[in-house]
Fold Transport permease protein.
Amino acid sequence: MSAATAVLTTEARLIGRNRAGVFWVVAFPPLLLAVLGLLPSFRAADPALGGLRMVDAYVPALLLLAVIMSGTQVMPGFLVGYREQGILRRMSTTPVRPLTLLTAQILVHTGIALGSAVLVLALGGILHGVPLPRHLPGYLVALVLAVLVALALGTIIAAIVPTTRLATTAGTIAFFPLVITAGLWGPVQVLPEIAQRIIELTPFGAAAQALDQAMRGGWPSWSLLGVMAGWTVVLIAAAVRWFRWE
């Protein structure tokens, strides 16, 4: 087993032991969808949503809930904890560089977020007849970009806070405005047009709209993908600039 593979396997095992984090990222979004789909108001077609039911329109928001939870609540705590304990500093003196650990963290959290997305789509389809995305490649591109944005944001949080307690606080502060723009408090499509245009400039507002477009069968708007790609580049550049290994 190579050093990189060993680190990846170890990180996956350690993250898996964080039962609370795994529950909120993997289990909570599909469970919330299961409950919401039981409400009569969520099962009726809504003309304001183009004939979709509310439960259908909420799927992108719940996918993004898992992504945001992973990036703001789970990943920063691990990275800050490693820095606090001197693990990153000690790794810098071995053939396994700290960047290997950071890469492993990103890969594991990406896998967890995508696994949650599969559960949301599968459970929604089985319990409530939520249709699968009609443009699957576009859906996957939008979802992967959203994951990259969230994890880059998590790396920035880990870069600027000195302790795990502050990482939790900072992640919680960032969490609520992000899930609001993602549509968790209500689908973006029902907002006034000017509000939609503003929200589409945010990374997860753009992600919610892109996922909705792909679900309806179209390739996501290039402007929405461009917004997410732009945020990803900016946040990754900031994470590289600010992240401290010690």
